[in-house]
What does this fold into?
Amino acid sequence: MNSVQSGVQRALLLVDPGGYMSETLRVRPLTSSIGAVVEGFDPTYGLSPSGAEELRQLLYEHLVIFLPKVTEDPDVHMEIARVFGEPIPHPVQAGMGAPTQLLSPIKSDAYGPDADSEFHTDYTFHHETPDAAALRAIAVPTRGGDTIWANMCQAFDALSPEIQKLVNGLDAFHSQGERFNELIVQWYGETEGRRIAKEFPGATHPVVVSHPVTGRRVLFVNPGYTRSIVGLKSSESKALLDFLFNHMRDPRFHCRYHWSVGDIAIWDERATVHMGEGNFWPERRELVRITLGSALPERAADPTALTPA
Ligand SMILES: [Fe+2]
It folds into this structure.
């Protein structure tokens, strides 16, 4: 019995290989690695204590869950998001004088088609990083514009024990990079943009972190924001990061989701990376994200001291 079933102690009925349903929800895993579509969400049950617990267990089990065509109402989006954590402002928006702004727009007209087209965990250039996020589709293109998530627990587990030991003791430097800074200047003007870029000089995190809920080890680097490995020569740092970035691009760790208006995706920011595909231009794509929880990533224990998960 898996943790979802045992965790919520609900009567579950196997309906097809890899799929199952509870009294109210039908769960359809997208891959053997990550991602599940959850159908039949009803706010009366889903926002109740037992419904919320079931949804959280599904998130920890599948790392990203999708509620198809669930709402176009921002208030319902916020209620669903709160099931998974406390909404927090994006640190850059907070730094720009909007400390109560809890919505992060992701608009193709503002970002261009390629700004999200690299794997990342949201704002790892900050010392505290988010726990989870809930993204709702407002406008979708007629084709393309999918989002891909990767299971970074599995990516770590798939490394050989010797590489696991090597990366487990390392730290990496993360920063937002020139592209991000250019966008900030574009949005907020030269003076404010330069000021905010200086306010976020980057952050150092362990290369392997411990998931705060499941305790699983997570490979915590991403090509969007990770710039170097601390203490290595630049050629060594580049070679190791290139290897890890190529490793996480292996499709066996991935799921893909094609958006419809009103869909909500909730993902575990600690255990995943994600990217939006820019293959819809010049059509419009607009989503809005609520970021949930924030904490310092914690170094994982030495893998040689642990029993296998
Ligand atoms: Fe993102």
Q: What stands out?
A: The chain is about 30% helix and 25% strand. The CA atoms of residues 28 and 102 lie 30 Å apart. The first helix runs from residue 3 to 8. Residues 3-305 form a domain with the Double-stranded beta-helix fold (CATH 3.60.130.10).
